[in-house]
Amino acid sequence: MKHELQSLAVLIDADNVRLDTLTPILDAIARLGRVTVRRIYGDFTTPHLAGWRLKLSEHAIHPIQQYRNTTGKNASDSALIIDAMDLLHSRRFDGFCLVSSDSDFTRLATRIREDGLMVFGFGEKQTPSAFVNACDRFNHVEELTTSPLEVIATHAATAETPAAASAPAAPVTPPATPPAPGGSRPA
C-alpha cells in the first residue's frame, strides 16, 4: 500500500541537540510527512547523554551507540553519515530530517539534495550558515520551543516604541454614504 505522505528518515546527532527540544522537533517533523526511520547517534554511556533513555523509548527512536574511542574524535558523526548514505541508496525515502547544529553535516545535506530528495534541517540559531543553506528548509529549535503567547508578548513589546505610544491617534473617517435609489445622496 502506497502512503500519501512523503516518507522521511530522521537522523539525530545527540551531541548537538538538547533533550528538551526533542518533542517539539518531532512534532514539527510529523507535519512534514510519515517518519519511517528514527535514529539517534551518540555515546549514551557518557553523563551528558545518560538522560536520553526514557525520551528515546517514549518516541520509539532507535539509539545507535558509538563509543568515544579517542578524545576529540566523534565516531557518532561518522556513523550517522554512513547510515544516511545507506538509507539514501535504498531509494525508500522522499526526504531526510537532519537534527544537529553541527556544520560537519553540510556535505551530507548537499549530497542528499543532489539525489533529488528534500533535506529538512533542525538546529539551534548558532548553527553555521553553511549547514543551514545546504538544507532545503532549516528550522531553528528556539522557534519550535517558544509558545505562541511568548511570541505575541515579544512582538507587542517590540512593536510599541516610545514615539508610537505618545503620538496621537489618527482620526477615524466614516465611510462614504452610498447613493440613494434614484441617484442622489441624502443631504
Query: What is the total domain count?
Result: 1
Question: For the record, what is the CATH homologous superfamily label?
Answer: 5'-nuclease
Low-confidence stretches: 161-180
**Assembly classification:** single chain
Element order: H for helix, E for strand: EHEHEHEHEHEHHH
For the largest beta-sheet, the strand count, sense and barrel status come to:
6 strands, parallel
At the third CATH level, what is the topology name? Answer: Rossmann fold
Main structural class? alpha/beta
CATH architecture assignment name: 3-Layer(aba) Sandwich
Strand tally, please? 6
Principal-axes geometry comes out as globular
Round the Cα radius of gyration to an integer and report it.
25 Å
Strand residue content:
15-25%
The first-level CATH class name: Alpha Beta
Describe this structure as you would to a colleague.
With 187 residues, the protein is an alpha/beta fold. It has a single domain, classed as 3-Layer(aba) Sandwich (Rossmann fold), CATH 3.40.50. Strands 3-2-1-4-5-6 form a 6-stranded parallel β-sheet, sandwiched between helices. About 11% of the residues have low confidence.
Task: List strands and helices in order, with pairings.
Layout: E1 7-13, H1 22-30, E2 34-42, H2 52-58, E3 62-65, H3 75-90, E4 95-99, H4 106-114, E5 118-123, H5 129-134, E6 137-140, H6 141-144, H7 148-159, H8 162-166
Parallel strand pairs: 1-2, 1-4, 2-3, 4-5, 5-6
